[in-house]
Amino acid sequence: MSVDFEALAVEAESAVSTASDFAQLDAVRVRFLGKKGTITTLAETIRSLPTEERPLFGQRLNALRQAVTAAIENRKAFLEAETDAAAFAALDVSLPGNIPNVGTLHPLTQILDRAVCICRRLGFALATGPCVETEFHCFDALNTPADHPARNEQDTFYFHNGRLLRTHTSSVQVRVMEKNNPPLRIIAPGPAFRRDEIDATHSAQFHQLEGLYVNRKVSVADLKGTLDFFFRELLGTGAELRFRPHFFPFTEPSFEIDVRASGLGDRERWLEMGGCGMVDPAVFDAINKSRSDQAFDPEEWSGFAFGIGLDRLAMVLFGIPDIRFLAANDLRMLRQFAV
Amino acid sequence: MKFSCNWLAELLGDLPPVSELNDLLTFAGVEVEGVETRGVKIEKVVVSRIIASEKHPDADRLSVCRVEDGSGSERPIVCGAKNYKPGDKVPLALPGAVLPGGIKIKSGKLRGIKSEGMLCSAAELGLSPHADGLLILDPNSPVGAPICDLFPSDTILELEITPNRPDLLSHQGLARDLAILLKRVPAFPKISEIPSGSGVPSMEVKIDSPDSCLLYSGRRISEVKIGPSPRWLVEKLESCGLRSINNVVDVTNFVLLETGQPLHAFDGAKLSGAIRARLARHGECFYVLDGQEIRLKENHLVIADDLRAQALAGVMGSSLSAVSGSTTEIVLEAALFDPATIRRTSRETGLASDSSYRFERGVDPCGVLAAERRATSLILELAGGRAGDPVIVKTAGFDAVANPREVVLRYSRCIDLLGYKVAPEEVRQLLAGLGLSLISTSGSGLETVYKWRIPSHRQDLQREVDMIEEICRLAGMHRIPKKTSGWYASGSDADDLYDFRLRVARTLAAAGFHETRTLALISESALADALPGLEAAMPLKNPMSSDHSHLRPSLVPGLIAVLDHNLRQGAGSIRLFEIGSVFSQDGQEHEQLALLVSGKTPSNLRQPSPEGSEFFDLKGALELLGIPGLRLSRKTSPLPLDLEVRSGDLFLGRIAALPSSRAKVLGARGAVFVAELGFEDLRSVLRGAKSYNPLPKFPAIVRDVAFVANTALRHEQVVEILTGAGEVRLESIHLFDLFEDPAGTRIPKGKKSMAYSLTYRAADRTLTDDEVAAAHGALVARLEGELGVQIRG
Fold this sequence. Notes:
The complex is a heterodimer of chains A (339) and B (793). Chain A has 339 residues and is of the alpha+beta class. Helices cover 42% and strands 19% of the residues of chain A. Chain A has helices at residues 5-18, 22-33, 38-44, 54-89, 107-121, 135-138, 171-179, 220-235, 281-291, 310-318, 324-328, 331-334; strands spanning 125-126, 132-133, 164-165, 184-193, 205-215, 240-248, 251-260, 271-279, 302-309. In chain A, the strands form 2 sheets. In chain A, strands 1-4-5-9-8-7-6 form a 7-stranded mixed sheet, with helices on both faces. A two-stranded antiparallel ribbon of chain A has the order 2-3. In chain A, helix 1 packs parallel to helix 4 (54-89) and helix 2 (22-33) runs antiparallel to helix 4 (54-89). The radius of gyration of chain A is 40 Å and the shape is rod-shaped. Chain B starts with a strand and ends with a strand. In chain B, a hairpin with a 3-residue loop joins strand 18 (309-312) and strand 19 (316-317). In chain B, the strands form 10 sheets. Chain B has a 7-stranded mixed sheet with strand order 26-29-30-34-33-32-31, sandwiched between helices. In chain B, strands 5-4-3-6-9 form a 5-stranded antiparallel sheet, with no helix packed on it. In chain B, strands 11-14-17-18-19 form a 5-stranded mixed sheet. The interface between A and B is large, with 87 and 93 residues.
């Protein structure tokens, strides 16, 4: 019996490649490989062949079966790919995605957290103190006695019981040193209050990050290195700092910190970010007196302190033009600071 | 304070450009707050005199003037102004002059009439931002003189002098500091000796309060002629923002600006008897210059004659003895007062002056009498008269402050505090440059100890650290290296609180809530928005405005204000939270967490907003925090809904709905829910450590049950019945459908459909279907029996 295997192969290949869907392809499979299919039928004829012809016939038939099976698999994969592609061809990928209804953290919280993370890398632990303060903690212990020209009652909110709203977070320094022994290294973020006319840059309430480091032989160089690290971490290594000599009753020497960096508005303009200085020995003396000991002996211990304006930092970093926007909590603005 | 660069240049020689001066001052610790220019710097503008003026033949608004320009000839000038008369002296811009606006003056014809120059207004010369008509000059101005001689140009620096540096509150003081930075020697005017024996009768001076008045000098000057001050004096005062009053008063103000020493001149004829520095009597009257009358207290220092207080010491003189045009005899006061006394007097009377500003910061004790002589000689020069000898009373307190102080500086301390090894020679140079004199040096190397004598004008240099500050300032901060040293810091409770706060904030943000930060000061009217029982607040004694008059007792009023703001901006769905301090009526503070929900749950394209789920958004946020054993119980309240929130038995706070009338006023759509919880309590219940629960080894079988019940049936009743059966294989109960049909078609009105998934599992084996069917059947029967619900197919 002579079978034209080549012709069969050509026929099968043509049938497979013209099958345009899974049903047609299955019909091709049945036609060639089904129970009554061409190849199955041929296989049954093998027993009727002379023994010497069987091996060759068997080989050729097998090759044909494999070729057809492979062709069908290929075609199937092709048709599947085509169907998959068609399924997504119609997908309008420009439609809006499903965004979960998440809220936001206030920009001040975000800036504070960046600042806190940097300070923690430097080994600062957090500390807190009350907003409603005594004159002692806010002024007297900070070397600002009652008749000191820097003690401006006009700028301070008072209560009828003689307490006041702290005008700076420096009062936390006093609270911490009253309760803890040196060495210590703390930051204290929180609100402070000034009786100012409210405008784009002044609010009755603002936020500061206070820092205090007391140890043996703490120097101006430590102060400079720490704040330099802080601002470069926060604003990028291109940030520049300058320390302008200034006056605060509770530090000596005292400086104002100016910063400039790309991304902070005008690259050439120095922006005032806060104050700093070496803890005045008079502050240590006042603490010792309040503690009735000599734990902070100014001959043994020295320290630096700084106060950074967080509102100002948020304003320059995020380009917020008015401090009042931070307290307005307009959702349209808050949403711009999605986490 | 305002400083005139011309004046400083008189003391120091030519100054560097303003930008350079700005940097020098900035790094010397003096902030330059403003720079302005004064006067005229234009050439070819001269004083002219209008000889005659007539109307322009061809223009109604113009006139043609004939003016004299000092060259001997007359010029025709066409002019549009109307405010002059022939004989007036006015500025004339000659051809070739260039005015500040860039206008070039040329000869030409205006409507056919020749005009050889331009008559100028103050604005055209840049002397004033606007002007009406020509600038009419002083009739004594010499015709032909350059205008820049009348209005010399000057740069005025507005400087912020810090309270520790009162020595910089004068031109000589600033010049002294600038001289160090510029490496120059300042030249101060010589003070001529006042001849004694003029025959002017002496006077009596007494100091009754030696703690407050340390030095008093009174000098009688007779036969003075009060009149206007010369141009140079007026110019100096005006450049510093002071107004010229008369020659005598101007001299005292001039000497104040020059030396920093406040002085006062009394009309001698108005004083009777001895001059006395004493404390005021309670309720004593003092007549202020502007006619106001104030009452004094016992701790206010006055300068009095035999009858009454004639000056509030160091602050200002009384109107009763002020120098006036008819004054012929004056008493010149120079004194040194205790800074704290002056500050108290000024603060309590609400009166302040250039004098009190300086006295309360401290003036140079050794400069008082020199300034007095300077003023006397200027008065004699400008107002004539004969000066008596000064009557000077010094107290022991004066000797204490006037005696030169000696301060020890340890070299090792200096380099330890700076963290920089500034050379010993440089330390000596810098301090010597400040006018300090080295008395002795002992030890060597790091152990060197210097003893310095401090000049009297540097009252701020009291301690070693004050001198180290000066070294740091003058050596320059840029030379100090940057050092960092980390260490290990144990977390404090404040660290834990901070981290917890951030965790809660992030969880609530994930639940769709926006964090707000509102001010701790709120208005009295906003207190009405606090939850009932939390309205009592501590008021400020000295509020700045009624908007910020009370410390918030609750975060809710702040959140409602934010709600109000955002509703006005058209926001529909508002989910807010704040973590912050609240304050009790006696000022105790603690932290709270507050939440606010208004408007539907936000929808998106594929998930429309469910109806009436606002309350559950709020409750869900609290559930997401993971409060264990969260329980809500209703309490009687004026609010439509007021729930106590507990974790187990621990009271955490409240959830409430605003009255609909309030919600309506705010413009909210639907109900507004708020919650306020104690943050420390929340921290205590959420403090628990997380731990691993073994995962189940055997599969669960889930069976659903759906039923129709009365709408009054509560979910917790269903849960109670199901869990109360003691079925140990029941692992969880999940309500997955809740439905009411207001139309009453699918289920009757007054009824609701509830569908639960019940999960069954055993820890030690795989449950069989039969086993679960029996258990489930029993629970379903229990629901039917106990709650009377109707099970749905």
